[in-house]
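Review box. Two proteins, two foldings.
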Amino acid sequence: MIWNPWHGCKKISAGCMNCYMYRRDAQFGKDSSVVEKTSSFRLPLQRRRDGSYKLTDDVVYACMTSDFFIDEADEWRRDAWRMIKERSDTEFYIITKRIHRFEVSLPDDWGDGYDNVTICSTCEDQRAADERLPVFLSLPIKHREIIHEPMLSDIHEEQYLSTGLVDRVICGGESGDEGRKCRYSWVLSVREQCMRCGVPFCFKQTGTHFEKDGRVYTIERRYQHSQAKRAGIDT
């Protein structure tokens, strides 16, 4: 597994990051159980000859092919935080299923959070939501998003959304031939909860196996985002 904090690609979704990670590692003969830091670790601070930054993305999705809070990266994370603070001109999205490890190696000057950092907690089903969201909402974070991707069950979370601490909720299915089914009714249910609580909602992708009105559709990866957008249910 490559621990790459500075993944600027906006085409890889949170829901498929684990299967993507293993597929990519397998292509290059890598053992995904071994965690390595990439050679581009200091990219955010690297400059060209004219003094401009080499990393110019307005938005950077951190560790999209691993997890920012994995145990093996504890020794590197403080340096990553320092670079994130220095690059206040760039917005960093950190998506994790390990929200319980958020405060490990947290910088001393974090306070209630950096303005340019959004922390996103993934919750694939009701059990994950009830385990992770109370922790998520108790932490010192300025910008929070909930990501149900892959969405694997109906999720009732209005008690968490009503706190006013969630900036947005994103739903999406699971990609890949072996992807588990996502039901449109689950997506609509979360959307309704968001609307009642005044929380912005985004339906990001259908996933490969998508059920709507009792019928299961198999959707090619290249159409999964566009089909979700065609639903027209983002708020």
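Next protein.
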Amino acid sequence: MTAWLNWLNWQMAGIVVAALLFFWGVGAYNRLMALRNAIGDAFTQLGGHLKERSEACDKLLAAVAPRLPSEQATFDALASAQAESQAAMQASRGKPWAPDPVGSLAVASALHAAALTRLLSLLDHQAELRSESGIDGLVSELKLIERQRAFARQVFNQAVAQYNEALHQFPTRLLANLYGFSEARSL
């Protein structure tokens, strides 16, 4: 009788340990999914600002390009950077936690920022052009959108950092590969 009770106690202890491990695994999975979904939510907000920036740049290019035909290389560089940035954003939209498409978006955003800085610098030296036909208003709108985009980018990077931190914590890191989670990349 004592051997049977001993065996039953060990069996119950095994069931309790197995249940604890199972629920811990489910909790770890749910936490990682919530953090990965937060990356997606932050990317949606960032994508909206990238689209607004693209539309504002299109308006600015349409207003400035006819007045400065000698600066066509600057306009072409911005238009090309814009197209590349939009393509990279579309590629990242499906899985904003995947490192490769987000890395391409980071490079495209850097190229876009350089081309935009070049155009804005050109406009700073064209004071008479900025004062006419509302170009100054377009530049102000673009600068506001850039500040909003920078904030959305920071929110995205914070979501990525929280996800990556959770991914590398001890017990979760054991199950992350089993669940198919991998490290995300920030912008």
